[in-house]
Design brief:
By secondary structure, the chain is of the alpha+beta class. The protein has 15 helices and 16 strands.
Length: about 525
């Protein structure tokens, strides 16, 4: 039965219509039954009361004249009604007449007030000449059994007719639904079940339903089948094209010089091409964590790139300086990633080591003095800008700046030639590199002007000691080619920069003033500018 209900729309629709009709018919029949029983009882009681009203005048005359014969006639007439079981006419506990059924037990005449229940109807009778003067009472006992039998009999018949009418209408509706709707749908369903649309087979048009909704449904299904066949043909062609394109892509993927890979949002690789493996010097059998392992110390940058690619849906590219393979080879790689679908990412890597080296070389040339190898003015300006920014952010450290000018250098150029002057500059630069720490900064900003930045230093005594060493070294004549020598001196202006923010031009100006004070006072000495030394 369950299988039939689940698989048969005919059985299911018929069962639903008849079941609903049975339920509704039953509810309405039961409701009608009780309603009619109650209504019939009320009608019977109302009829009895109307009878009492119709004999009221006659009973009033009989009571007024105390005529027992007349009152008995009235009682007998009332008793003829099958719904009345007993009739009693009395006055001041004096019974004028009483009529009752053989099985009835009327209360004793000496006390007519007994028995005032739901089975009794009592009416007060007034004088025919004075409507305010009460002369007697008439009371009847209702035959509840007869009324109940009559009421239930009528109610059953009407309820049954109503129930049968509902079932008949439901059966008619079920037949109409089955014949005009459900059965044609089942026919179409059975044909669809055996249809082979991939072969272009179409549904036959039902003759009786050619122009109604089922005919339209059949036409729509046939149209869908036609479109489906066309779509399948297109899909087959697209599959062939996709297979050819995939083959081409696989060839490119396997033979490209650029590293190509796919990974998840955690940075774990899911696939990669041979170029990727070669570039990072890893083995195919253990590549899933190769990118993260290569980025040791820079994993945060990689994960930030992944988050940006997913959240911003953009192509993200950055350069990384990494260590690859077992040989600990250092190289620069350019990494590009973007999101594809389902949180997966696709990426490219290229070895840009040579380009980076060329850029670094070009940058170094741009900021380096070509003669001495020290930084030039551009390098000094960039260094000061960098330090100024660090101090502004609160991450800078105190330092001393020394502005060094070579005394008598012009005489060397004029007397011994520019080659001798260049040799002096080279030897002086070499002496500075040997005297200072590797962390200190040396720049040649003019012909014979040098600048030294003593990094992370705030003791003035150490700065003075370094200045004295430089002066002492310069005091020794410089040996030149062909047995020649050159004697020069040096004037040094010193300024101090603490941890606070500073303006590079102002600091340089202080050192310049201090240096010129040395020149005015005789040269070959140092002077510290008036500055707060922490």
């Amino acid at each position: 039965m369950r299988e039939l209900i689940r698989t048969s729309i005919v059985f299911r629709s018929a069962s639903a219509v008849l079941g609903m009709a049975f339920l509704v018919g039953s509810l309405f029949s039961v409701f009608s039954y009780f309603y009619l029983v109650d209504a019939e009882k009320k009608h019977s009681i109302s009829t009895i009361k109307e009878l009492l009203n119709s004999v009221e005048n006659t009973v009033a005359v009989a009571c007024y004249l105390s005529d027992k014969n007349l009152s008995k006639e009235v009682a007998n007439d009332l008793k003829k009604n099958t719904n009345i079981k007993e009739v009693l006419i009395f006055n001041n506990n004096v019974v004028l007449s009483e009529v009752k059924s053989s099985d009835s037990q009327i209360p004793p005449a000496s006390n007519p007030a007994i028995g005032k229940g739901t089975d009794y109807i009592q009416k007060d009778i007034f004088s025919p000449f004075n409507k305010k003067e009460q002369v007697c009472h008439i009371r009847v006992r209702v035959n509840q059994e007869t009324i109940h039998d009559q009421s239930t009999t009528k109610a059953r018949i009407i309820a049954l007719l109503l129930f049968l009418q509902t079932l008949f209408m439901a059966s008619a509706v079920a037949y109409i639904v089955l014949s005009l709707i459900t059965r044609p749908i089942k026919v179409i369903s059975d044909r669809l079940h055996n249809l082979r649309p991939e072969n272009g087979e179409l549904l036959p048009q039902p003759e009786k339903n050619k122009y109604d909704e089922l005919g339209q449904l059949t036409s729509d299904v046939n149209r869908l089948i036609t479109n489906l066949v066309g779509t399948l043909d297109e899909e087959r062609e697209l599959r062939k094209r996709h297979a050819r394109g995939e083959k081409k892509f696989q060839t490119i993927f396997d033979n490209a010089e650029t590293g190509i890979f796919q990974m998840n949002k955690d940075g774990v690789l899911t696939s990669c091409n041979p170029a990727f493996l070669r570039m990072l010097g890893i083995d195919k059998s253990n590549f899933s964590h190769a990118l993260i392992d290569t980025m040791k110390g820079q994993e945060l940058r990689l994960h930030l790139m992944i988050d940006a690619a997913i959240n911003e849906m953009q192509v993200i590219a950055e350069d990384f300086y990494v260590e690859t393979d077992q040989k600990k080879q250092k190289k620069w790689i350019h990494l590009v990633i973007h999101e594809t679908e389902n949180g997966e990412l696709q990426g490219l890597i290229n070895d840009i080591t040579e380009r980076k080296l060329r850029e670094e070389s070009a940058h170094q040339l741009a900021v380096t003095d070509h003669l001495t190898g020290a930084y030039n003015r551009l390098g000094f300006e960039r260094e000061m800008a960098h330090r100024s920014k660090a101090h502004l952010n609160g991450s800078g450290s105190p330092f001393f700046i020394m502005l060094i000018d070579l005394d008598k250098f012009k005489q060397v150029n004029d007397q011994l030639g520019h080659q001798a002057g260049d040799d002096v500059l080279l030897q002086f630069s070499k002496m500075l590199h040997q005297t200072l720490r590797k962390s200190d900064f040396i720049a040649r900003i003019g012909g014979d002007e040098f600048i030294v930045l003593l990094h992370d230093l705030q003791q003035q005594t150490i700065a003075e000691e370094i200045a004295r060493k430089i002066i002492a070294h310069v005091a020794t004549p410089f040996d030149l080619h062909a047995g020649k020598s050159a004697s020069i001196g040096t004037s040094i202006g010193i300024a101090f920069v603490d941890k606070g923010s500073f303006v590079p031009a102002e600091v340089l100006a202080k050192a310049d003033i201090a240096m010129y004070e040395v020149k005015k006072s005789g040269r070959n000495d140092y002077r510290i500018a008036d500055a707060d030394k922490g």
